[in-house]
Write a structure and sequence with these properties.
There is one protein chain. The chain is 47% helix and 24% strand. It has one domain. The radius of gyration is 15 Å and the shape is globular. It has a 6-stranded antiparallel sheet with strand order 1-2-3-4-5-6, with helices on both faces. By secondary structure, the chain is α+β, with helices and mostly antiparallel strands. The termini are far apart. Helix 1 runs parallel beside helix 4.
Length: 150
């Protein structure tokens, strides 16, 4: 399955509406960058994970693993019309569709660059939610794009 084409199709309205940039790292990893942030989507073992990237106070990129935090707001409307999946490809397709809908329906402020979610994130996950330093490949690929939007 061409996950890049699926990703671009499902996220087109988000990219257009919020003037975000879509980037492919490889055939299983994609990102959208915006106002001082990026979201990285990784397809692995039939699932899609989502991470948030933003510069810390020293300007170094940090990554938050926030799948559970983000999808916790998704609801039946985000899953509406999604067909039962059997194969890994169908599962990934459904997850990408649901993530695009859920972000558009529940996380508009995040897509606009608002970072007020961080306080709520720490309140829920505490020390376990601590961000980690972005790998050089992510810094090289997304760093310039994140800075362009700031």
């Amino acid at each position: 399955m061409d996950y890049e084409a699926l990703f671009k199709c499902e996220f087109k309205s988000i990219l257009d509406k919020y003037k975000l940039i879509g980037t492919a790292f490889d055939r299983d990893q994609f990102a959208i960058t915006g106002n001082g942030f990026a979201l990285i989507f990784t397809v692995h073992l039939g699932e899609v994970s989502i991470r948030y990237v933003m510069p810390n106070s020293q300007g170094k990129l940090e990554i938050y693993n926030f799948d559970l935090f983000i999808v916790g707001k998704f609801d039946a409307n985000d899953r509406k019309g999604v067909k039962k999946a059997v194969t890994h490809e169908e599962i990934v397709s459904n997850e990408i569709t649901i993530m695009a809908r859920g972000l558009m329906n529940h996380w508009q402020s995040l897509l606009q660059g608002d970072k007020s979610w961080v306080e709520k994130y720490y309140a829920i996950f505490g020390v376990d939610g601590k961000p980690y330093k972005a790998h050089r490949a992510i810094v090289n690929k997304l760093g310039p794009l994140i800075c362009v939007h700031q």
